[in-house]
Amino acid sequence: MKQQPLAFRMRPGHINDIIGQEHLVSEGKIINRMIQAERLSPMILFGPPGTGKTSMAYALAKSLDIPVKMLNAVTDKKKDMEIVVEEAKMSGQVVLVLDEVHRLDKAKQDFLLPHIERNLLTLIGCTTSNPYHSINPAIRSRCHLFELHPLTMEHIKTAIKRTLTDNVNGLGSEPVELMEEALEHLAFAANGDMRSALNGLELAVSSTPQNDEGKIIISLDVAEECMQKKSFSHDKDGDAHYDVLSGFQKSIRGSDVNAALHYLSRLIEAGDLDSIARRMIVCAYEDIGLANPQAGPRAVSAVQAAERLGFPEARIPLAVTVVELSLSPKSNTAYKALDQALDDIRNGKSGDVPAHLKDSHYQGAHKMGRGVNYKYPHNYENGWVDQQYLPDTIKNKDYYKPKNSGKFEQQLKQVHEKIQSEKNNTRF
Predict the structure, then answer these.
(1) Which residues, in sequence order, are CB contacts of 140 under 8 Å at separation 6+?
(2) Pick the CATH number of 354-427 from 3.40.50.720, 3.40.50.1370, 1.10.3710.10, 3.40.50.10140
(3) What is the DSSP string of 21-64?
(4) pLDDT tens digit sequence for 16-40
């Protein structure tokens, strides 16, 4: 038993043991409702590595005391699936947990489908790929699709603490003393990946000799070595990495290129490419937006290049893009306008779509007034014609307030103002 990896041994055995994914397994949520009803449906669990897809699948089957078999769509053959079906015929039902389900070939799929249809097999497929792009429609249409989210630092810390007190499957029988800053670093460096955190913890414990008092002391230095990622700081409050990320984003927003490069350097030293990528892309769309609309696609391209190159070369496209983002003109008008529209919707400020805009591509639509008097803009000289688009209750709403930031938005502002002026001249 102890020869199995720690992350495997600590897999949850019941839905109540699952850490994270509250949107699916907490009281009243969809998967919890399945368990309460004792009716497990076929499903695809998808999300980043280490979010607990396979572990959740196993825990769900065990929660209902249904026999469970775990296979891999790539490495296991059709013969292995035939054996599972025979076992299901003997027991009445089997949960088949199928890793890499997006790699399921046609022969295996054709074999499984009739058994899934009859509910002899309850398929729980697990994949890191987007099922809408990668899963065959024949399988996808027969399964619920549930996205698993990256675990937070608090989730990871909860799992580590549980592991250190578990005398059966965890490290409760070991004389481990985990320093608080080491716990923080294990949780942070795992970047939402439970498996990574527990693998790092297991390596730290197994490779650290006992001190003179018979204790295994896991310090920050040990945690850094075992996770192969440096800590932002030796601060015990655990907020240092968030402060650096905040400083990075706000320096780009404030057009301070030197500060942005400084914080980028600290993030690179910590090896935190995921956070760098996310903040750069967010800045490109949130803070620069229409002032330089190509900043977004270029930030995405830089991130893709960095991910392909890996460190240390990844620093090169990152540096180029951070300089561009910092020195680009800034505008948040687009998303601010959308936020105002969303706020109206959420506060009940909506209304019926005007009749002339409603779908008219069906028999009898015109009799109901659908699409009648709609003016097709392309039939007019400027490609624009004055007609009402917003519902009556908010027909005069003006969400978008353009700025003079950057040539592109200046051009948009001119078009916007011209249309508004023509509307006013037409109506008065």
Answers:
(1) 44, 131, 132
(2) 1.10.3710.10
(3) -HHHHSTTSHHHHHHHTT-PPPEEEE-STTS-HHHHHHHHHHHT
(4) 999 999 999 999 999 999 999 999 9
